Amino acid sequence: MFWYNGSLIDSPTLELDIHDPGLLYGATVFTTLRVYENSLASSLTNWYAHCDRLLFSLQAFNWEQPDWKRLRQGAEAMLTHFPVLRMTIFPDGREWIIGRYLPENLSDKQQHGVNCAVATSQWSRSLPTHKTGNYLGAWLAKTSVSAHAQEAILVDNTGNWLETSTGNLWGWGNGTWWTPPLEVGILPGISRQQLMKWLTQQQQVVREVVWTPEFVQSLEAIAYTNSVVEILPIHTVHQPTGSLQYNPYHLCFQQLRRLFLA
Fold this sequence. Notes:
9-stranded mixed sheet, D-amino Acid Aminotransferase, Chain A, domain 1, 5-stranded antiparallel sheet, globular, 2 domains, 14 strands, D-amino Acid Aminotransferase, Chain A, domain 2
C-alpha cells in the first residue's frame, strides 16, 4: 500500500515512465518522519519541519512544489497503517508516500547501543545538504560494513567523521555536547535541529567542531540521531587502525531522551 499522485494504491509496485528523471537519475527529494500519538499535529512528529525540508530542496533545485494539502491528505491516509512515512516529491510536483514499521529491536538498541564501522571515503552522499533520491553512496557505505557492523560512519578524504549513513553524530566529552558542523558537508537533520534548540533552551553547551581522528578518541560517549530512531548510542566503532569503545549507558543520554518524552 502506498500513496501516489493523489491516490491511495493497494499494490506492491509503482508504474513510472521509463524516461522519468526520478527513475533515471534519482531526481527526487524526500523526508522520513515518525508519527507520534498517531497524529501529524504532534510536536514530536514535526510535520512542518519535514515540509520545510522538502520546500528548501525544491526551491534550491527550482522544481515544482506539490499540492501541499494533498500531500497531507496522503500522509493522513498512510499513518493509519504505518508509524513511519517516507514522503517523496518528483521534479514536476508529484507526491509519493510509502510507509514502514519501526526498526526491529529498536528499544533494545536504544538501551544498549549499536556497533558501527568507518566506511571508505569513496562512499559519500550526493548533495549532502539535501535528501535526494540518489542515496547510493550512503547505501553502499552501510552495505559495505554490514557483515560486522549495524551502521556505517561516513568520512571525508582526510578521515574526519561526518555522519552515519542514516543520521547525525553526537558526542559527549568534557561536560559538553559536540556535533560536526554543517560546513563539513552533512545533512541538517531535523532531530539535530530539535536537539540543538532544546539543549540551548536548557542552558546546555553544544559545540560544533570537526571530528578529526584525534578528536573522536577524546569523547566519552557518542550516538547518532534521526527522526525515526531518535537517539541510538554507539558502543563500538571499527576502524582500520583498531576499534574504539564508548559507553552506551552514559548518563548524558538520559538528558537527550527527555526531548522525546515531551
